[in-house]
């Protein structure tokens, strides 16, 4: 209502007269293609009714043909199914999950306690080398 009143007052200032303008978007009923998942606008597409009564609506003859050849939509790069499977699009979903780096920790091994291992690590490399040779 506010937009309409602003438009009307603008027209009066400019000195032009026009009929009341409606700023309401027209709603068009669209269907989804059973194969590609693209939107099908009125007057487009073809409907297929199977023997069991299941209705499929295809955007074009290409989608219809591929469906009847039993070619999986997931294997075709241009279909929405392929894009969903390969995580394409939807950039607004937060940054990729960060994998947590595995934390290092020490465990005692057979024949040595954790304290003994820590003492050996703290020794200078020369001492350890001398002990190894002896």
Layout of strands and helices, then pairs:
Blueprint: H1 2-14, E1 31-32, E2 39-40, E3 46-49, E4 55-58, H2 61-68, H3 80-85, H4 114-122, H5 125-133
Antiparallel strand pairs: 1-2, 3-4
Task: Please describe what this structure looks like.
With 134 residues, this protein is of the alpha+beta class. It contains 5 helices and 4 strands. It has helices spanning 2-14, 61-68, 80-85, 114-122, 125-133, and strands spanning 31-32, 39-40, 46-49, 55-58. The strands form 2 sheets. It has a two-stranded antiparallel ribbon. The N and C termini lie far apart (95 Å).
How would you write the strand order of the largest sheet? 1-2
The percent range for strand residues is: 5-15%
Largest sheet features: 2 strands, antiparallel
Query: Which oligomeric state applies?
Result: single chain
Distance between the termini: 95 Å
The rough form would be described as rod-shaped
Mean pLDDT: 82
E-strand count: 4
- List low-pLDDT spans: none
Elements, N to C (H/E):
HEEEEHHHH
Structural class comes to alpha+beta
Question: What descriptors fit this protein?
Answer:
single chain, 134 residues, alpha+beta, two-stranded antiparallel ribbon
Concise account of the structure shown:
The protein is of the alpha+beta class and 134 residues long. It is built from 5 helices and 4 strands, in the order αββββαααα.
